[in-house]
Each structure stands twice: as C-alpha cells, then as structure tokens.
Amino acid sequence: MPRAMENAKEEFVEVRVRDPQIQNRNSWHPHVDYEIFLHTNSISFTRKVSCTRRRFREFVWLRKCLEKSTNLEQLPDLPPGNLFFSCYNENDVEMRRQGLQNFLHRIVKMIVVLSDSRLHLFLQSRLSVSEMDACVSGLTSFSVRDAIMCQQRAGCRFPMEEPPLQPQQLRQPQEEEEEENEVAPARDASPPRKSHPDVLAMSTYDGEGEKPCCGEYDTESEQDSGSGSHNNCLE
C-alpha cells in the first residue's frame, strides 16, 4: 500500500486550549475559563469537531477521575495551582493556558483513557461537573451521546432544553388581539346620556306639520316676549 494512503487513514486528535476569558468580573470571585477546541477523525469521539469552555477546577476534577478509573499513577501533570494567581495578570493566564494544553495534548494520546465517558463529556459537552457525574452514573434521562449531540444541535445545556412550540401556539399577536375583541368588545366607560323628551320627539318627526318645540326658553327676555316658542326649536 502506498505511504500516502497509509497517512490518509491514520487517526489524529488535535486539541487546543485557547481564548481565555474572565467570568464574573463584577463579583468577589472572578475566574478564567478557556475554550477547548477539538478536531479529530478518530472513531473514539462522537463529534469530529467541537468547542466548549472549561475552568481550571474542572481540569483538576477530570484528572482525579481519570486517575481513579484507569488506576494509572503516571498521568500527565496539570500546571501547579498558585495561591497568588491573578485573573488580570496576562502572564499568569498565559502560563496556565499552556500548561492545560500540554495536559490535554498528552491525555488524548493515551488509548487507555479514551474509553472513559467523563473525558468525552469534558471535551465535547457543556455539562457541569455534577451533571457529568450524574450522566455517567446513569442518573439522568439523557445518555452521554445525547449530551454531546445536544450541544451540536442548539448549544443547549441539559436539563434546560424546552420542548418545541406546537402549531396552535404559533399564532400572531394580531390574531390573538382580534380574538380577544370578539370575546369581550370594548365598551364606552362614560354613562349613557339622558335624552330630553322633546329631543325624542324630534327623532320621530316625519317632515309633515309643525316641528315640535323644546318647550323651554333660553333667556328670560324670550320668555317675556313669547317669541321663544319657535326660535328655540331644534333644527
């Protein structure tokens, strides 16, 4: 077989730790997390390309889990924890980033640890430490594969995924407003006006004969002169 074909079938796992970001800047306990980028053609991984974010304490948890599950004492070391580590010191952050990348670079080359589900959840899901423990122990409604593929579909985080809306829930606001108006039509809040008897008479005037008069005078002068009987008619 030509060497080119052998190289094409050779499995590779490329992992990078990059893009450190400070979280909870305005709190008393800010921390730095790092993006983990994975690219592989290995059949050991569910997804061939993935990204997630992890902080230093999660790396510590991962190493303890791998050490316990594989019974290996010679696992790669993490960068040492520093009591004087500062999130705002670029040199501290960069030194830790390099140490974390060296750790993962050596871990993914160890065949014995590639069968550990916690490693795959750590690299390719957004589950927290407690959620990863529960998933591996079978205490969740989703499997390891579900948790990894969930991030690919919608970037969701178990168990917060909401069910999709049903067709009857996808109505437009205008349709809902029209339906409310049909059920409860708007009413005038002002009290009904009382019509004067002569006004009611006017509404029944058929155009023949004399128009009905109001029967009241606007001024005392009209009352005295007697000329208000027709001038005050509603026209």
From TrEMBL:
The keyword Transferase does not apply. Keywords: Cytoplasm, Endosome, Lipid-binding, Membrane, Protein transport, Transport. GO terms for biological process: intracellular protein transport; vesicle organization. GO terms for cellular component: endosome. Its main location: cytoplasm. It is found in: Cytoplasm; Endomembrane system; Endosome. GO terms for molecular function: phosphatidylinositol phosphate binding. Residues 224-235 have a biased composition (Polar residues). It comes from the Eukaryota. It holds the Pfam family PX. Residues 12-129 form the PX domain. It is a peripheral membrane protein. Residues 159-235 are annotated as: Disordered. Belongs to the sorting nexin family. This is Sorting nexin-10-like isoform X1. The lineage of its organism: Eukaryota, Metazoa, Chordata, Craniata, Vertebrata. The gene is LOC116940937.
